[in-house]
């Protein structure tokens, strides 16, 4: 109940308040998203152990934007959501909503809806009662509240015939839909989603994510979402903040994060990738030439990151996505370019692609995703691999 926005009692009403919008430009966003509906400014929060729960969070979510906090367990995502909701106060920094500080506002007076991994529906109320409750608590007459609740339930695919059911009688996907309807029935400015799709079966997760995207446009939602699921974060969001151990490592569009991760940790957290250690040989004309620890030469674009830029003679990590590597059952001379020899260790069927494990150089291993139906080397047989300069990134350190 600790994170329940909708609670009973005189103080326990949800509800929104109109604040004056103030411009807080986000340089990378189109004009429609230029006003930060919610902004985290220099947020810090000490943790329960030595590691801070959040050591730095600085981002603004534009009106109409879907933003996701992506990170592994313990990254600080829930703490950030709870700070936005008002359940946790930061040690430093501030949260602004529509340009105004909200530190003094309790959760039920913030203009938000919240859904967590557990739908937390009121078990003793009917489905309709759950969704009508936020409206009644704000003084809406019952008949009108029920009408609006039924309309919101219908948007989420819950028919009126289920209105009299208890939440426990519904499967998890439908319970979550009821929770979303309840969170949105009073038309809050901001929807906070703390990994609500995590516990669902894949099919339910996909249809719910699709409905969320559809309703986001229909209802003009602004969403701050937290998840550990990189594919979901990239597919659902306009922008993603990658958090790890309480630190925001990168904030950008899904394509930026996937194609140009700021560091190898972001690369690994945003999708499958190869991280190959080596030493920088030279940097010429924007191309970083590397001697990999497995003995092979390789090339990629140098990246300036938290560890600085790659320097000739310095240690580095070359990052490349598995689908950006070409593999052919040919010799390097036949494949041409900068192709190098490889040996196929394993090919596994993964539905829409094959997952190949290749041996390169002295003990190096490379993961490659290959479309189904293309010619493959024999397992254990000779092959060649190649990639173009833009496919690989070289980061300092490794
Ligand atoms: N109220 C709190 N005050 C301070 N630290 C907290 C609080 N709640 C959780 N923490 C700590 O913050 C850290 C991050 O936890 P958090 O729950 O935010 O991770 P998360 O990224 O949401 O992980 P998960 O994906 O498992 O939910 C943990 O070390 C946790 O112990």
TrEMBL record:
Keywords: ATP-binding, Nucleotide-binding, Transport. Coiled coil: none annotated. InterPro entries: AAA+_ATPase, ABC_SmlMolc_Importer, ABC_transporter-like_ATP-bd, Mo/tungstate-bd_C_term_dom, P-loop_NTPase, Transp-assoc_OB_typ2. Pfam families: ABC_tran (PF00005), TOBE_2 (PF08402). Residues 38-270 form the ABC transporter domain. GO terms for molecular function: ATP binding. It comes from the Bacteria. SMART domains: AAA (SM00382). This is ABC transporter ATP-binding protein. It comes from Muricoccus vinaceus.
């Amino acid at each position: 109940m600790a994170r329940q926005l909708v609670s009973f009692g005189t103080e326990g009403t949800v509800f929104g308040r109109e604040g004056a919008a103030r411009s807080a430009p986000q340089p990378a966003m189109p004009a429609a998203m230029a006003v930060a509906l919610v902004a985290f400014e220099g947020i810090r929060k000490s943790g329960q152990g030595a590691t801070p729960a959040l050591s730095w969070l600085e981002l603004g979510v534009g009106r109409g934007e879907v933003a996701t906090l992506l990170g592994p367990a313990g990254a600080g995502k829930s703490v950030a959501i709870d700070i936005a909701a008002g359940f946790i106060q930061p040690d430093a920094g501030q949260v602004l909503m529509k340009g105004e500080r909200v530190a003094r506002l309790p959760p039920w007076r913030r203009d938000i809806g919240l859904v967590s991994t557990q739908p937390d529906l009121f078990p003793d109320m009917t489905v309709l009662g759950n969704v009508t409750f936020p409206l009644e608590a704000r003084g809406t007459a019952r008949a009108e509240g029920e009408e609006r609740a039924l309309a919101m339930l219908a948007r989420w695919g819950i028919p009126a015939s289920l209105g009299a059911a208890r939440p426990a009688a519904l499967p998890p996907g439908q319970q979550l839909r009821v929770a979303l309807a309840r969170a949105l029935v009073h038309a809050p400015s901001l929807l906070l989603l703390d990994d609500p799709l995590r516990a669902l079966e894949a099919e339910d997760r996909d249809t719910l994510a699709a409905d969320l995207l559809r309703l986001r446009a229909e209802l003009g939602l602004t969403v701050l979402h937290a998840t550990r699921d990189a594919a979901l974060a990239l597919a659902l969001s306009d922008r993603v903040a990658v958090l790890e151990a309480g630190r925001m490592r990168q904030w950008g569009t899904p394509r930026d994060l996937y194609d140009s991760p700021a560091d190898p940790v972001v690369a690994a957290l945003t999708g499958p990738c190869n991280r190959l250690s080596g030493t920088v040989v030279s940097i010429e004309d924007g191309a970083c030439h590397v001697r990999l620890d497995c003995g092979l030469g390789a090339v990629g674009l140098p990246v300036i990151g938290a560890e600085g830029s790659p320097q000739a003679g310095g240690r580095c990590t070359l990052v490349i996505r598995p689908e950006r590597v070409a593999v052919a059952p040919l010799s390097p001379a036949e494949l041409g370019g900068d192709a190098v020899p490889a040996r196929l260790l394993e090919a596994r069927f993964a539905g829409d692609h094959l997952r190949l494990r290749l041996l390169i150089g002295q003990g190096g291993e490379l993961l490659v995703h290959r479309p189904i139906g293309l010619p493959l080397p024999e397992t254990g047989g000779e092959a060649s691999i190649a990639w173009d300069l833009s496919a690989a990134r070289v980061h300092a350190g490794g």
